[in-house]
Every structure is written in C-alpha cells, then in structure tokens.
Amino acid sequence: MSEATPQDKRPDEQRPAPAFRDRLIAEIPHLRAFGASLSGSMQLADDLVQETLLKAWRHAGSFTEGTNFKAWVFTILRNTYYSIYRRRGREVQDTDGFHASQVAVSAGQDSHMDLADFRKALVRLPEEQREALIMIGAMGLSYEEAAEICHVAIGTMKSRVNRARIRLADLLGLPLHAEALPAAKPPSRMLPQLPVVP
C-alpha cells in the first residue's frame, strides 16, 4: 500500500504556508471585535473566532492569493454567525450578563452618555446597520471591503452606515452633524427656470 504524497492530497487538505498562518493570527483581534459586535457577547465572539479560524485553516486552499484576505476571513465569521443564529432561532443569549446590566439605570447617570448608553443604543440598531457601522466606524474597513464581506453594493453599504449614524444619534439624543445628512439641493437646481414667453 502506497502512502499519499502532498501532491495527491486535495488543495484544501494541504497544510497552509506559514505566511497564511501569520496573516490569520494578525486578524484575530479584529475578528473578536467583529464577532462581539454581531453577537453582543465576548464568549460567543470567542467561539465564532475559533470556528472561523478552523474553517479558514481547513479551507486555506480556497483562498485566492492576491484577493482581500481580511474580507475572506470576515465573510467566514459572518456566515458562521448567521448559521448559528438560524439554528438557535430567536433565543436570547446573556451568558456574560450584558443585557441584564442594561435593565436599570442609576438616577445620577441620566444626564450624560457613557459607554453603557452607547452599547444599549448600538444594540437597538437594526442588525444590518449595526454590522455596517461596526465594520466601517470601529474596525476601519473601507466601504468596498465591508460591501464585499456583506455581499452588497458599495452604495448599499454607504446607506446602511449613514442610516445607522442618524439612528444612533437619535437614540442617544445627540445633534447630527451636517456631513451625516445628505445635502439638500436648492429649489433653483431642482427645477430649471424656464423663460417666460410673452
């Protein structure tokens, strides 16, 4: 009986190169932050990251060199999250007590925003908007990278981020900056002036 050589293995069964491992390790903090923003739980985020790393390692051969590595691993994490979410249905996970800590607010803390207020408002955003805002605003991804991860057009990603910013400002009772809103066209530009015919 002959032993299988590395050339006989399928591409996804070959051991990834050390450079692949290094790139994967470099993404772990970003994956944890993204996982926490999706799930609302650091424990679930760590589980998501672990599953993502295993899948990426197992399918390293399916990554096309020269394409966006970060988008590739973020897509794996996002798809893993949605697979778990679909399986679990709509049950509430509160293993680290985050949601329970948001139920009551001390009387002396009503007049200012703190991190807990921000988190509470962020959780209230629609999931697509929260995800877009975290990827662009907190993680520093470009609109193109975020759009690629979410499989949407760049314009859709920009709209989601803008709506998320507007909604977040509303939830926090903050004034909006002019650049957060689309500029209104002056009426003279909307309808051209027609000459008056005598």
Question: Which labels suit this protein?
Answer:
single chain; 198 residues; mainly alpha; Rna Polymerase Sigma Factor, Chain: A; Arc Repressor Mutant, subunit A; 2 domains; disordered C terminus
Polypeptide structure, described:
This protein is mainly alpha-helical and 198 residues long. Helix content is 59%, strand content 0%. The chain has helices at 18-39, 42-58, 69-88, 98-101, 115-124, 127-138, 143-150, 154-172, 187-190. The chain starts with 17 loop residues before the first helix and ends in an 8-residue tail after the last helix.
Number of domains: 2
**Count of alpha and pi helical runs:** 9
Q: Structural class, from helix and strand content?
A: mainly alpha
CATH class of the largest domain: Mainly Alpha
CATH architecture of the largest domain: Orthogonal Bundle
Topology at a glance:
Layout: H1 18-39, H2 42-58, H3 69-88, H4 98-101, H5 115-124, H6 127-138, H7 143-150, H8 154-172, H9 187-190
Helix pairs in contact: 1-2, 1-3, 2-3, 3-7, 6-8, 7-8
In short:
The protein is mainly α and 198 residues long.
